[in-house]
Amino acid sequence: MVFVYFLLAAAITVYAAIKLSTYADVMTEKSKMGGMLVGTVLLAGATSLPEVTTSISAVMIDNPDIAIGNMLGSNLFNIFILAMFDLYFRQKQLFNYASRDHLYTAGLGLLLTVTTLVALIVRVDMTFIGIGVDALLIAILYGIGIYYIGKQPKEPVAEHEVEEEVVVSKYEDITLKRAGFGFLIAAVVIMAAGTALSITGDQIAVVTGLGSSFVGSFLIAASTSLPEAVAVFMALKLRNVNLAFGSILGSNIFNMLIIAMSDVFYRNGSILADVSTSHLVSAVGITILSVLVMYSILRQNVTSKVRYVIPSLLVVVVYFVSSYLIFIG
Question: Is a pLDDT exceeding 50 seen at residue 83?
Answer without folding.
Answer: yes
